[in-house]
């Protein structure tokens, strides 16, 4: 997205449109069911829209709602490691934090330090190192030890009691799941397929997971079924361009969460172009 106001308005309008697809589809489906409009012979745009609204409604009810309910279930935590190992992990973590006050403030959702009191810190540590939600006397001495180590590092003590700060506890907090419409996933499917074709044309080879995992990705990726090369990982797919240079190091490119490799195709093409004719 560019810096202009018109582009910003366009993007916000697209977001609003995508956000309202589900409620509008449900409304249209209910209206269609209640009023049962007369059927017209041949192609009808209204008929296509009614069918798509029904698909969006079914996707919301059959897929999204059960998924949201499933994700609220308690997380499955790994078995606790012995005390000495936990203590060493805590010390290592402390050694990587240059500014403890800022670190704690961020984990407490940018709360002021005055609201992060002793009981707040204990609650955070119980989750972070013990995977427990409530007070367990078995581990309270250990939790107190960690609090004292933090206080020693900060060179000041926490206020007693509990403040208004609320810490982030990823495996205990509610999962705020935002609905994505079927139309959005169709857009992702088209972008993903076009990106894959472009990467293939630029000399990259796709390495898929095993065929039994074909339905583990949504939207489905046709190249996960037809690509001849198999990934070395059971869960990870990747694109690979053979590296033959004896004078240059290989490049490992890892992209972030988003629309996939689409924004980076031109960059990868330019890298290929720059290396063309060399011992790449």
Automatic annotation (TrEMBL):
Annotated protein name in UniProt: Alpha/beta-hydrolase
This protein's UniProt keywords: Membrane, Transmembrane, Transmembrane helix
Keyword Transmembrane helix: yes
Keyword Repressor annotated: no
Membrane-crossing segments per the record: 15-35, 47-67, 249-265
Naturally occurring in which organism (per UniProt): Aureobasidium pullulans
UniProt lineage: Eukaryota, Fungi, Dikarya, Ascomycota, Pezizomycotina
């Amino acid at each position: 997205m560019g810096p202009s106001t018109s582009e910003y308005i366009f993007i916000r309008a697209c977001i609003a449109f995508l956000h309202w697809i589900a409620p509008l589809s449900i409304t249209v489906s209910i209206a269609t069911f209640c009023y049962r409009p007369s059927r017209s012979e041949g192609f009808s745009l209204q008929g296509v829209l009614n069918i798509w609204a029904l698909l969006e409604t079914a996707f919301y009810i059959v897929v999204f709602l059960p998924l949201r309910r499933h994700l609220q279930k308690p997380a499955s935590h790994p078995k606790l490691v012995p005390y000495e190992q936990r203590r060493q992990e805590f010390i290592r973590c402390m050694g990587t934090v240059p500014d403890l006050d800022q670190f704690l403030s961020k984990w407490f959702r940018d709360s002021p330090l005055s609201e992060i009191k002793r009981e707040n810190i204990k609650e955070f540590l119980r989750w972070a190192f013990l995977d427990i939600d409530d007070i367990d006397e078995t581990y309270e001495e250990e939790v107190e030890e960690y609090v004292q180590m933090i206080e020693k590092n900060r060179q000041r003590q926490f206020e007693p009691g509990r403040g208004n700060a609320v810490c982030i506890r990823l495996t205990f907090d509610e999962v705020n799941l935002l609905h994505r419409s079927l139309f959005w996933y169709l857009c992702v499917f088209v972008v993903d397929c076009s990106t894959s074709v472009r990467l293939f044309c630029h000399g990259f080879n796709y390495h898929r997971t095993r065929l039994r995992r074909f339905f583990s990705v949504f939207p489905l990726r046709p190249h996960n079924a037809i690509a001849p090369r198999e990934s070395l990982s059971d869960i990870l797919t990747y694109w690979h361009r053979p590296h033959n240079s004896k004078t240059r190091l290989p490049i490992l490119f890892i992209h972030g969460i988003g629309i996939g490799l689409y924004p980076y195709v031109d960059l990868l093409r330019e890298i290929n172009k720059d290396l063309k004719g060399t011992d790449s």
